[in-house]
Amino acid sequence: MTVRTRIAPSPTGDPHVGTAYIALFNLCFARQHGGEFILRIEDTDRVRSTTESEQMILDSLRWLGLEWDEGPDVGGPHGPYRQSERGDIYAEHAQRLIEAGHAFKCYRTSEELDELREERKAAGQHLALKPADLALEPQEQERREREGMPYVVRMMVPDSGTCVVEDMLRGTIEVDWGQVDAQILLKSDGMPTYHLANVVDDHLMSITHVLRGEEWINSAPKHQLLYEYFGWDMPRLCHMPLLRNPDKSKLSKRKNPTSINYYRRMGFLPQAVTNYLGRMGWSMPDEREKFSLEEMMANFDIQRVSLGGPVFDLDKLTWLNGVYLREDLDDRGFLQALMSWAFNEEYLKDILPQVRTRVDTLSDVAPLAAHFFSGMPAITEASFSDVKMEREDLVKLLQFLVWRFESVSSWKKDSLLVEVKALCEHFDLKMKAFLAPVFIAITGSSSSTSVMDGMAIIGSDMTRARLRHAIEVLGGVSKKQAKRLEKEYREL
User: Fold this and answer.
1) Of the residues 187, 253, 316, 480, which is catalytic?
2) Helix axes 451-458, 431-443, angle to 10 degrees
3) What is the pTM of this model?
4) pLDDT in tens, 91-138
5) Is 480 a catalytic residue?
6) Residues near 144 by Cβ (< 8 Å), separated by ≥ 6?
7) Which residue positions form the known binding site for ATP?
8) Which superfamily, per CATH, for 89-193?
9) What stretch of residues is annotated with the motif 'HIGH' region (predicted)?
10) Among 231, 272, 441, 467, which residue's beta carbon has the most beta carbons within 10 A?
């Protein structure tokens, strides 16, 4: 048997360090056994999936040195490797389940589902809806079907009992079937949910081992049941510990930069980031901190993974990156790293139009364009003293802008302008007044190149990181204040 592992990211945003972390361990496990590593794109979310996000995933994983044997860009015998191109396969398998009595068409409306859940909640029951809860009277079922009302395909699940799942790291896991709902397998638009697509694809692509985050433990019973329904052997499961913030909460972009693009833009070396991700919950036999990807693959043993939540410590990563810069790069290597990082033609050609018309001597370029080549601006609360706005209103403006930018799928100036104009209207501010604090947060100065062009150039990750940094400089947002702001933001 050839060991085959996979990573299956969704192209719905910036490439997440958690994706790279799971990809790294899947790659190392496959290589340890002389096996193959596959990249599959889970783009069934038609609204949020973008080709730009997919390309960022491919670019960022390759930047980290993580190469795959099969995938959407390299091909392979088990394609297509984008789920959006496999719709007929999922429909066929969903129909097989319906015909075998393992799945059913559910015509329930969203209002009816909400009502059913409220009834169960009031009765002190699990909110998981079972096939019996969802069943309509035969005549009503026939009417809705006859009238062509929208429906989803749901799987049959047991009402009670215990599901036993074996995990490579955790041993035997028991889950109460009472907490497992009649999972949607095929949505009303004909696209599969993760659960159906993941099981079908893993089987058809001959995946032997599934290494994924521990957040999927509660879904394991559904997946195991689907394998039984289809009569297939299930891959061995291994649920990796989640990356954590220093306060032990799940790693999130609201507390830590989570995009690989951020670390690339900040000037971290790819080998240092890969090394650090390898140290997340795993250690070399000799416990050394610094090791290459090749050394990790050569010494990899999944049993050395610790189940304690690994803390993603930015200070520790920064320290390790400094070690690489000092120990691994001579002068020529350092120069090449600088040129690859930011002093390259591709990046500079975007910056030059911003500075050429604003300088009289070449020595004017460095101070004018410094924010294109730096990390967090050296700002204080006093930096905003000339902005005619109360501190609380400043924080609200910057926080709302962060939230608006989190939903931007195509990071271009025109798209950013739409979000800024919407907030200008909400705050009843003219564009210049609205952008004044944004200008300081992004450039660290009250006079520089266009802040709208600047945000488009430095990218989504760095833009949001600088806005969050400015919020912290201004005193941050308390939990109480956050709830109030979120409520107001939802009403926009």
Assistant:
1) 253
2) 40
3) 0.92
4) 999 999 999 999 999 999 999 999 999 988 888 887 789 999 999 999
5) no
6) 107, 136, 151
7) 253
8) Glutamyl-tRNA Synthetase; Domain 3 (3.90.800.10)
9) 9-19
10) 441
